[in-house]
Amino acid sequence: MFSLEKALSITLLGLGVSCSSSIFTDYPEDAWFGLDAFEHGQFVNAAQEFQELSGTLGSNEFLAYAESGMAYHVGGNLEAATNEWLKAVKVLDDYGDRPTISGRGLSEGALSMLINDKATPYDGEGFEAVLLHGFLAWDFLRLNKLDDALVEVKRGYEFELFEEERFGTTYGMNRFARFIAALAQDIDGQYNDARIDLESLAKEMPNHPAVQYSLARLDRLESRERSKERKVAEIVVVFERGRMPQKIAHELRYSTNRSVGKFSVPGFGMPAYAAASVSVNVGEKGLGSTTLIENILAVGKTNLDDRIGWATAKAVARSVAKTVIVDEVSEAAEEKHGKWAGILVGITGTLLNEYTERADLRSWLTLPTEIQVLRAAVTPGEHRVILTSGSAGQQLDLGIHSFQAGKPVLIGVRAVGGRLYAEPNAHGATRP
């Protein structure tokens, strides 16, 4: 049986720790300074703020690297972006090497049952990990590091298999990752592998312009038109729209004889406004608009829906256990020290439950809500590239680019709020 003094000491210790520990704060609040800089186009500052988000005992280490990498990525510093993202991959690899099925130790699991799920390191959702490898492959292609891009393509496939073995289910290689995989394999001359990914995409998206163009291109490369096709220049535009909404807590409170309990589960809030699409002009020719390849927000919601039952059951069990303990200690305190001692323990126990019982709102917040792509043939030569947002009408003049056969011009553009961000000089990837 706990003594009153011990109960109060534990309560005060918990409340004291709550002032400084990320276990007792919500991740969107911790990330606010980085997100604010990100949304105002201050990407270097954002990256630096995100790098400080390692959290209690490194529990948010993956997110610190993933978020800072995205800030550098959108800001056009691809070397820094890939360096941060490779660190995030290392964190995931370390989690994957743990001996338990969940990738978490027994002590971490026990701590999550005592306090909340934020006591365990965030090891990323499956779709976030696959997207991480997809973004790495895309940036390595733009850095003209084809071998590194192909490594990330392979690792994306390996992670898909790992997820299937670990959980018995998988969301599969997301469509963006498959598109980038096919692009990298095409550039490397691995046409059969590229076709496998493209045909998989075509089954899910039978009328997607970039997928149909890519398949038709492979047909020409494997026919009598091969020599002619090899003389064609290309442009590939990847448009990242918006930013993933913050998760919000759905809470329910209930009363017992001596205290008030609470359980809390996560859900997605509403995404902010962002330009709907981007139209692409090369020289005097309009090539059309980018087309949806991956709805990341929809995948995130599906992923959360699939595990919300378990998250709810765990939160209820943890909350009920806490209120049972508080009620028992409160009753013991009343018997030993009188009515007001029991009331005091009930109040402080309620406060401790209120502070500790918090939904895990962690997620990769700088991910776009969706990804759109455009891939098209361009006449070789020097051409000006202009991007225009379909809804806001904002125009970005990316200057004159040299379009060469065998070296597709690769352009990344991001919409955050009402603004578009793109590098003034696009990168190319050379075919063998």
Q: How would you summarize this macromolecular structure in one to three sentences?
A:
With 432 residues, the protein is α+β, with helices and mostly antiparallel strands.
Structural class label: alpha+beta
Largest sheet properties: 6 strands, mixed
Q: State Rg.
A: 25 Å
**Strand fraction:** 15-25%
The global form is elongated
Q: N- to C-terminal separation?
A: 74 Å
Question: What is the number of helical segments per DSSP (H or I, 4+ residues)?
Answer: 15
Give me the count of strands.
12
Order of helices and strands: HHHHHHHHHHHHHEEEEEEHHEEEEEE
Whole-number mean pLDDT: 83
- Level of helix content? 40-55%
In words, what does this structure look like?
- The chain is an alpha+beta fold and 432 residues long.
- The chain is 51% helix and 19% strand.
- It contains 15 helices and twelve strands.
- The strands form three sheets. Strands 1, 6, 7, 10, 11 and 12 form a six-stranded mixed β-sheet that branches. Strands 5-4-8-9 form a four-stranded antiparallel β-sheet, with no helix packed on it. A two-stranded antiparallel ribbon has the order 2-3.
- α3 runs antiparallel to α4 (43-50), α8 packs parallel to α10 (175-187) and α14 runs antiparallel to α15.
- The longest helix is centred in the C-terminal third of the chain and has 42 residues, at 296-337.
- It starts with a helix and ends with a strand.
- The model is unreliable at 1-21 and 98-110 (pLDDT under 50).
